[in-house]
């Protein structure tokens, strides 16, 4: 099963809410030791998203411990205060066996480089599930090319194009397969009365001041994902490539022709979907699951005649279909050397994590126990409505990594046709995502000047799209980026890249 289905399962059982801290533990020995029952004990620090967290009497935790032959001592921390607690724990030197960590968080980076956590790179291939890590996600979650934890997988190929499909039918167009066809769709939605009300009151692409869709569409044109390799083999930022300007010229064209809302530079992202729901705009480029949210809003607004939506993969550009990926993970499970001192102990912890990637463990920690927390209806399951029982699953999904493809064995809830299409697209996107080769590198220069550098590029892009500056003036802004720390940033990224390559 792809990661989207698994994320949906988590959401459907209502695990994510505001929280307070609590802890539980059913181990019969201290963390890092093997008790009389023969089980190794691991202590795990996790963020909590609910005020009701399972304790050591939980039948789900007990079954997990039995199946993995491990005793687990949970330390739950409210998600809102988790970053502070993480830094305090790190500074104390008293780390648990496993801790949820943001691999790009400066305090974690410094600790990992200083040897506080195991570099798992040479060990992961020895475990049947952990060895199946997606290379792009593993690359993204690494530090200096090294894996200092096991990533918690999230949807990698999440992007899509959401379209008012009833409008497409009205203007006689099918799914846009190329950028040219995408342009024709925007033009028809603007000029051909797609809502058939006889008025000139619609347009194609809905945009806001959130620049993510521009980033998504740049990749369609062949521009790199943030960084790319030039002809000399040097890593360079995307705005230095000619394909970036090809994309910007397209954006400038659709803006000049009124195919995108003229107020996008100041429009609040909170009202992004309003024009689609209200029959003013026809297309949104964003995460594919935006289609499901829009469908729900259309039904709520007009249950009798809601209008319909469709969702598509990226249209093909000069280099074929290309999709901007997410990072593909939400934090990592890092293993401390302070608590897990030997390779023998490390093997026990990694064996435990490896077993959590089995389908039965994913089902258990997501839904609980059949006949208690849910009923199996064959193609899908129905969770209990007993909130007390559902609370027994709260937070346990934070342990799941979803590394392996257990599609034929993992449980699922009933889904709409749009949701099924979203999942199919996001699964297919994995084959066309464009990785960022500089993702593992932690830049000191960017830490100092990154906000300023990003602002120069973002403002120049918007000004060029709306026609406030010409190409020469835009290039002057890119030159200013270089002079404001960009050149040093490029040098540092390439030095880090060379260092990793030479170490391999």
From TrEMBL:
InterPro entries reported in the protein's UniProt record: Bact_solute-bd_prot1, SBP
Gene3D superfamilies listed in its UniProt record: Periplasmic binding protein-like II (3.40.190.10)
Coiled-coil blocks: none
Keyword Lipoprotein belongs to the record: yes
Signal peptide start-end: 1-23
Record keyword Oxidoreductase present: no
CDD domains (UniProt xref): PBP2_AlgQ_like_1
Swiss-Prot/TrEMBL keywords: Cell membrane, Lipoprotein, Membrane, Palmitate, Signal
Record-given protein name: Putative aldouronate transport system substrate-binding protein
The organism's taxonomic lineage, starting at the top: Bacteria, Bacillati, Bacillota, Bacilli, Bacillales
